[in-house]
Amino acid sequence: MAPCGRLATWALLVLTGGLAVREAQGKRPFPHLQDVKAWAKSLADDLIALVDTAKFDELKNAYANEVTNGKLSLVDINGTQLIETSTKQMAASIAVRTRALKSLSDAAEGAVANHQYNQSIKWQDVPYYSAMDGHDEDHMLPGLVDDKWLGGQSNRTNSSIHIPVNIYEQDAHVLNVIAWSSHLDAVFVENWQQSQDQVPWQAFASHTGVFRMFPARPMQPHRFGSRTLTIADVPRRFDEFDARMTQWYQQTISSPKDMLILLDTSGSVEGRSLGLMKHTTWFLLDRLTEDDYVATGYFNTYAQAVSCLSSFVQATTHNKEVIHKSLDNLEAANQANYYSGLEYAFKIFNNFEMEERDQNQGANCNKIIVLVTENAELYPEAVFQKYNQDKSIRVFVIVVGEPIHDWSVLQKMACENRGYFSTVRSDGAAREASGDFGQVLSRPVALENSKEVTFSKIFMSEKGDDFEVYVSYPVINTTTNQAVLGVVTVPWPVKEMRKALPLREIGHGGYAFIINNNGFIVLHPHLVPDDAFYAKPPTLDILDIEFTSAEKEDMRHSMVNMEANSVTINTLTKTHDHHYIDEVQMTYHYGPVTDTGFSIGLGIPAYHPGSLEVSGVSYGDGLDAFERNSPGNL
Predict the structure, then answer these.
(1) How far is CA 429 from the centre of its chain?
(2) Residues 400, 374: contact at Cβ < 8 Å?
(3) Which residues pair with 378 in a beta bridge?
(4) What is the pTM of this model?
(5) What's the pLDDT tens digit per position in 298-322?
(6) Model confidence over 515-530: pLDDT tens digits?
(7) CA–CA separation, 548 and 552 (whole Å)
(8) Residue 533: what are its φ and ψ, rounded to 5°?
(9) Cβ partners under 8 Å of residue 461, min gap 6
(10) What are the φ and ψ backbone dihedral angles of 397, each rounded to 5 degrees?
(11) Where are the alpha helices (DSSP H) in 138-263?
(12) Main-chain phi, psi angles of 313, to 5 degrees
């Protein structure tokens, strides 16, 4: 049968079938056969005209001619080479940011060394521009202009200062930090002028809470990973932003840790003390990063887990929220048995060590018990002798409430177990006390000068159009008392990472993705920016977003271990519009990005054997001509 006859027959069947259904529904009388035939012929003619318009035969012949003439060619995909090229481009991108961070760190350390501390310094004597409203004219932001890099308005000749609402801005320590850190402005400007697109903003976060950001601009609630607080149901104002609470700050100043938070819920902590304990725990959770593992317990006569998470789990946003919600169920009752409580904590550590678990589970570095209590009368010597003779587990003690008790026993617990003793009398003090362990654990970084560049999880960018990673580096006081003074940080936009990926070569059915050394997604075609991520940045494992199989789990394990390899897997994939599921044979190539914790993966389907190359025309030239709608210029 000729093509025209086949089209007419199919058109006739479609029309008569549809009309029969409508007649059966009683909506209209069935038409005469001749009318239906006429409609079918008209529809067939239209379809034939459509095929002729598309000129498939002409396109096929034109393609064959271009191939014969050597202008077009199908180039086989070399996934290993594509990975090497992409990882080198990303490593070069990181090198720009590393140079900027180290120049800032060196400038800060030099400024501290040359600064003469002034105990009697006055607020009026320190010139700076405040990122907050309500200041006098001397501290108000200077002329702001539209900023094409960040959106909104800024001043790119100065930096601005943000001080958390719980910090007294006229404190001498705060004012001295503002004074010596003003020397960073020249370095901020120089870094930006050298790499405007790569370093659109820079910041320095001090251990005192002072936050200096460039360019100078008003503070916004969603900036700098400021919406990471695990108290999801409590609104957070931007003047409460404290850089020391952010994941990127904590990750940079200290090593990974396994932390067990142990709460005293005996009858004596009824009321305000119990509330302070819960708030302290919230802030402790908020300071933990994806590199940390956390467990919780509470005790009075006996001890047990706070939540359904009875052992150590990774401190992801989800796991921290599970613990946070369970805190609401705690009530004060009975007497405190410190031996029982501490024995429970040490056994959790011991059991976790003996568990059969993946080698990447657990921080495998610092081990910490944080005891949150009100009072202790007797020192539980026996439990420390039995479980912690070698002092391998640090014990930090946070005491809540008014100083109406003798705290010498609790101070001894902390001092004899390589910990720290803190007191909490208000919610603001709870925030400060929750950071004490970070400062203690940062001492080895300062003493050994073991500074490393760190990479955060993804946060929403300032413009809200994509994700970005915070690349950070510590600042150390190298003079009298070696300590971590703060952290400098710059952004690494995901859209810049995307430019280094060979998306054209791997074709429409292929895709690229990036994960960090925890297996969490940094870039994936199915993870797109959303306003909800301002409040809760995503922490999705690659296996949460991919169709899981044993082969995929092995691939993830290799990528987390920074290995380079390729594997072919029969898997299910979503189409780019998320409407369909396709079963394909996919070859995955992957490899690590030098000097980062990131690994790139490329998924290339078997039905896409190569990419089309045009002789004498680069991809960039072709894309530029296409966007100008002038291919004839090539």
Answers:
(1) 27
(2) yes
(3) none
(4) 0.82
(5) 999 999 999 998 899 999 888 999 9
(6) 999 999 999 998 888 7
(7) 6
(8) -75, -10
(9) 467, 468, 491, 493, 529
(10) -120, 125
(11) 172-181, 184-194, 247-253
(12) -130, 155
